[in-house]
Amino acid sequence: MAHEMILVETQGRVGVITLNRPQALNALCDQLMTELGDALRTFDADPAVGAIVITGSQKAFAAGADIKEMKDRAYPGVYFDDFIGKRWETVLTIQKPVIAAVAGFALGGGCELAMMCDLILAADNAKFGQPEINLGIIPGAGGTQRLVRSIGKSKAMEMILTGRMMDAQEAERANLVCRIVPVADLVAEAVKMGEKIASLSAPSVAMAKEAVNVAYETTLREGVRFERRLFLSLFSTEDQKEGMAAFAEKRKPSFTNR
Ligand code: CO8
């Protein structure tokens, strides 16, 4: 599929997807979301890629869903034509870790897309917000749920009810992002993290990601049971034998993803 609204490249073993619709601050229109889903699926299926980075420009990760594309849509058309469904949730179906590298605005659907990724690395100029309330709507791609789980009820409620944006420092204090890096280093730092992940055993990486994400969606008791099943299943892999033998023999492991 030819891409017009994203740039796709690999840097070493990391797949990098750059949202590239600068004239609209990377507003997430249908075409952009379709292209993003296509690129994510392609990287997920590529054995040479071990981790994926989604980023935008220095001014905007994404300023939300495309308001101009949405403004004349009506109910029940939006209900029947999978308005939010598959296109928006592709990132949740990806087995490899997906890092959101956020500089500038991550607003509305942009903030929701970042939160659907496995983790968010923020540039020092990042700004997060759910300003939908200013448009007479509410977040619609998981914002009311994921933001609460991430930063707690009061802060999420304030952002969603007032539309107030959070800067990178506040986002780090609130645990929305894993850490902050200078904007000029953002993509390099995200790729470095992706390279580290890609150098590890793919089955353990995929299962670690799956287990952490389950913590969002189930009870502690069920989550711990799920983790234990995955943990024990990894004893069937060659990489578990290699990783532990390498430790005992004081050498670096050589993983084969089997
Ligand atoms: N949609 C469409 N166009 C946009 C969007 C957007 N979300 N954001 C910016 N643009 C366009 C502007 O219209 C402008 O275009 P033009 O030059 O043709 O007028 C261009 O991008 C540059 O924007 P600004 O001139 O406004 O730039 P500023 O630096 O002055 O302001 C802001 C930057 C503060 C980010 C401002 O653009 C803004 O407030 N944008 C809208 C933010 C917003 O409300 N986001 C939430 C959208 S709703 C949403 O995301 C719901 C998600 C639901 C799930 C999925 C449903 C399918």
TrEMBL record:
Sequence similarity? Belongs to the enoyl-CoA hydratase/isomerase family.
**PANTHER family per the UniProt record, alphabetical:** ENOYL-COA HYDRATASE, MITOCHONDRIAL, ENOYL-COA HYDRATASE-RELATED
The reply to whether Lyase figures as a keyword in the UniProt entry is: yes
| Top-level taxon of the source organism | Bacteria
Job of this protein? Could possibly oxidize fatty acids using specific components.
If you read the UniProt record, what top EC class would you report for this enzyme, in one word? lyase
**MF term (GO), any:** enoyl-CoA hydratase activity
Protein name as annotated: enoyl-CoA hydratase
For the keyword Transmembrane helix, the answer is no
The GO biological-process annotations, alphabetized, read as: fatty acid beta-oxidation
Q: What is its EC number?
A: 4.2.1.17
Under the heading Gene3D superfamilies, the entry gives: 2-enoyl-CoA Hydratase, Chain A, domain 1 (3.90.226.10), Lyase 2-enoyl-coa Hydratase, Chain A, domain 2 (1.10.12.10)
Q: Which of UniProt's keywords are assigned here?
A: Fatty acid metabolism, Lipid metabolism, Lyase
Q: Which reaction does it catalyse?
A: a (3S)-3-hydroxyacyl-CoA = a (2E)-enoyl-CoA + H2O; a 4-saturated-(3S)-3-hydroxyacyl-CoA = a (3E)-enoyl-CoA + H2O
